[in-house]
Input
Amino acid sequence: MIRAASISQGAASVAFDGMADAYDATFTDSLIGRSQRNVVWHALENTFRPGDRVLELNCGTGEDALFLAKRGVAVLACDASARMISVGQHRKTREAPNSSLQFRILRNEDIDTLTAVDRFDGVLSNFSGLNCVQHLPAVARKLADLVKPGGAAILCLSTRVCLWEITWYGLRGNFKKAFRRLPGATVAKLNEIAVPVWYPTIAEVKRSFLPSFTLRSVRAVGLLVPPSYAELWIARHHSMLKAFETLDRIVGAWPGLRGVGDHVLLEFERTSELPHRSKRHALQPCWIASR
Output
């Protein structure tokens, strides 16, 4: 396995910078992208209120940050890609110029540079941003310093077992891709740049955030709604997408099913427990922006 520390940070930044200008057209505004994101937005609407202050990790072009900002939530949206941040800032100027939204170039491993003054009512990481962190407990400890007791952590990660992926690639005879998540780690190629990706189970994520965060709910994102690589197929079967969305709302939180979609949405609450300090785990480089 290629460790994150062995990947060229400069090359990875160039890869994500190169994806930024086309990102909204290829994913944000796609049928599947919108469908999967709506599940996360429903959780955000039920969690955050006008006047709240939210930290977003891996904000990409700012789609989720703008959603919250337009509802009166102050957001500090962070991403490692300078070009993603630039696109987000231009979007803010067009879509929410008077909002309390700020963008910052900031990698996940550097969130501890935010001071105690910067405490938040919650944190958001959408669409696999935390899947490129090898040691989640290190992230959780840093977030515990930044989120107020009673605050929320809304985290959407890629699952270890994705039934759609196994079926989609398995039927095409590409068993390497069909089962690539099962070992728990792989190396993804983005613009021919190797990026290590980890697939923790729900139980592993839960343990990583204890004792500072308590898991309150779990729901599948993309259980019957397919992954983004099925966009052309779903565009030809638009009526099926609506049916899949309805079924996902009904069964997406069922035990046994909630962990086998394309992503899983975990909602944590910050407890009053102080995080355990340890130097054993260092936060690994992470460059994957929100998909």
User: Anything to note?
Assistant: The radius of gyration is 18 Å. Confidence is low (pLDDT under 50) at residues 1-12, 277-291. The first strand starts at residue 53 and ends at 57. The first helix runs from residue 9 to 28.
